[in-house]
């Protein structure tokens, strides 16, 4: 009996997450507009026929970023080929002092090929983060690294017209993350 109850609790939590997956209403949505550097050119956010998943992070992030990328990768694999073709993933690297775009590309390709690595100056990155109501800041640490970065952990969803329409919380089950994507595709 305890085993059945133990198995039902995670299922109930998943159902609760999905039920609460409500997109923002049109009057809550924020129009997003930015230009950042990518590996060989400038990336200008423009209208598209895809939704975009946007994540802020950095390469030496010890746990949150790799976990999020693994969840994104597994969720994308759970989608159909047609669904995947309607999703674009943008990674905005917030540690422009240490991380280079070639390094960032190699890092994100390890998780899921096709993730678009983006970066810019600290000023540019802060302006972009403000549009998402996201944050990041340098935190001094006593190590050879000298500092780490504290940052927002949500994945932001932009629609084809560049409106911020949803956010996906960190550390949710892959099935729930996948439901967020599917909900926003419709």
Q: Which descriptors apply to this entry?
A:
alpha+beta, Glutaredoxin, 6-stranded mixed beta sheet, two-stranded antiparallel ribbon
Report on the architecture of this protein.
- The chain is of the alpha+beta class.
- The protein has one domain: Glutaredoxin (3-Layer(aba) Sandwich), CATH 3.40.30.
- Helix content is 38%, strand content 24%.
- The chain has a six-stranded mixed sheet with strand order 1-10-9-4-5-6, sandwiched between helices. The protein has a two-stranded antiparallel sheet with strand order 2-3. A two-stranded antiparallel ribbon has the order 7-8.
- The radius of gyration is 17 Å and the shape is globular.
- Residues 4-27 have low confidence and may be disordered.
Q: Could you say which structural class the secondary elements and strand pairing correspond to?
A: alpha+beta
Name of the CATH homologous superfamily: Glutaredoxin
CATH class term: Alpha Beta
Which CATH-level-2 architecture? 3-Layer(aba) Sandwich
- General form: globular
The percentage helix is: 25-40%
- Rg calc: 17 Å
Secondary structure layout:
Layout: H1 2-19, E1 30-31, E2 35-37, E3 42-44, E4 51-57, H2 64-78, H3 81-84, E5 87-93, H4 101-111, E6 116-118, H5 122-132, E7 136-140, E8 147-151, E9 155-158, E10 163-168, H6 174-185
Parallel strand pairs: 4-5, 5-6
Antiparallel strand pairs: 1-10, 2-3, 4-9, 7-8, 9-10
